[in-house]
Design brief:
With about 200 residues, the chain is mostly helical. It folds into 2 domains: about 20-85, Helix Hairpins (Orthogonal Bundle); about 95-200, minor pseudopilin epsh fold (3-Layer(bab) Sandwich), CATH 3.55.40.20. It is built from 9 helices and 3 strands. The protein has a 3-stranded antiparallel β-sheet. It is globular and about 50 Å long. The protein binds fe (ii) ion (FE2). Fe (ii) ion binds near residues 166 and 168.
Amino acid sequence: MSFTLPALPFAVGALSARGMCQETLELHHGKHHNAYVTALNGLVEKNDALKGKSLEDIVRLAYGKDDLQPVFNNAGQHWNHSVFWESLSPNGGGIPGVLEKKLVEDFGGVEQFKEQFKAAALGQFGSGWAWLVLAPTGKLKIVKTPNAATPLATGEGKVLLVLDVWEHAYYVDFRNRRPDFTDNFLNRLANYENAAAKLQKA
Ligand SMILES: [Fe+2]
């Protein structure tokens, strides 16, 4: 069975009033993400050892293996983008009490969390991702990864929220201004409800 592009959990134009326009989502979801899914299916088709495996298994299995780097890149990007769409909301930016309490406990406050997350998003040189994860220690932690790398493979924690900081994520809306894109995400787009639900399930 081949992998398929997941539908966006909101209408393609639903974020346009909050700093992510329809053109961005049509390109990012419909072209970039779709291309990773198509490429992954082509690679799995040619590799019997990967056939029938889950996306998560393929990401973990291919991580750090030179001969499987194209598989890792496309599988990682498919997984990362799937989590990214869940990290966005047309009603984003509001932090539920259960998550706020944990952010205060582990970072000292909501503003401190946002500062650390922004530092990770801006500190990721070139393409990559900024993540809020629940570390194996039970504490929330900010992680950044390059290119297709993902906490799913590195074991740094269970992912609660992610921001794509590849240029294709922000160039239409914010040109080269990654700091503004990150602020807009943290304050107006981030689906903290989804993050809080994942925290409670963990
Ligand atoms: Fe992306």
